Amino acid sequence: MCVLVGTAAVPRVAAAQDPFEIEVYPYHTAERGEWELAAHLNYTAAGTTDYDGPVAPTEHQAHLALELTRGITDLWEAGAYLLSAYRPGVGVEYAGWRLRSRVRFPESWRLPVLMSLGAELEFTRAPYDENAAGLEIRPTLGRRFGRLQVDLNPVVERGLRGQGSRSGEEWEFEPSARVGLTLSKAVDVSLEYYGKTGLFDSEAPAGGAAHQLYPSVDLKLGEGSACSIGVGVGSTAAANRLVLKSRFEFPLGR
């Protein structure tokens, strides 16, 4: 089941959230030889209205990320992203690209939870991120309780090149979580949480943390296709106030 999430950018002291691909990753990875195509489409209906350094105002921005994933082995997948965006007064433009690798731990290990570990290199243009290059480390933890699925991603991220990498914030902590309830074979409802704050940064202001909640509906469309739609609401002044989000996933075969 795919999970779609809205995105938000917030002032730099609050650590701007990724406007292109905010997703609570499940444990599962693509099967060996399997190709998958996903499209993340998000729109910020109510967001920031002023520049924050190199980052453009987010209000009325739309963001599209195309994600191509292949299962390399039974436990390892790799993916690539192409990013584009629409900004009022500018129009549609190229926004960057990304590379991702993720490995899941075998269920035969009988761990208390299902786990995988991923890393992502991000290259984003200045209007959409304070860092031209960044590194994300994403552990995933998941467990099912009957019809209830719980997933946790305690993500950490660091800017490698750009304003954020020089700010002294070092690593940022970006926890996300999803609680999903299966209503039928085709429909799940879920509540997703996303946060972002400085990590190992004693000078970061306490009020700079961003927190967001996203009620979503996840649909299986048949033949392996799926989609998710929802609305994101910022729970603090540091987050965008209203975000519409969607994600569509299509299998491309082996």
Please report which band the strand proportion falls in: under 5%, 5-15%, 15-25%, 25-35%, 35-45% or over 45%. over 45%
Helicity level, as a percent range?
A: under 10%
The radius of gyration over CA amounts to 17 Å
The poorly predicted ranges are 1-16, 201-206
CATH class: Mainly Beta
Shape: globular
Number of domains: 1
Strand order, largest beta sheet: 1-2-3-4-5-6-7-8-9-10-11-12
How would you name the CATH homologous superfamily?
monomeric porin ompg
Distance between the termini: 19 Å
Largest sheet: 12 strands, antiparallel, barrel
Number of strands: 12
Average pLDDT number: 87
**DSSP helix count?**
0
Summarize the helix and strand pattern as letters. Answer: EEEEEEEEEEEE
CATH architecture: Beta Barrel
Molecular structure report:
By secondary structure, the protein is an all-beta fold. It has a single domain (40-253), classed as monomeric porin ompg (Porin, Beta Barrel), CATH 2.40.160.40. 0% of the residues lie in helices and 58% in strands. It is built from no helices and twelve strands. It has strands spanning 35-46, 62-71, 76-87, 91-104, 114-124, 131-145, 148-162, 172-182, 187-198, 210-222, 225-234, 242-253. Strands 1-2-3-4-5-6-7-8-9-10-11-12 form a twelve-stranded antiparallel barrel. Strand 10 (210-222) and strand 11 (225-234) form a beta hairpin.
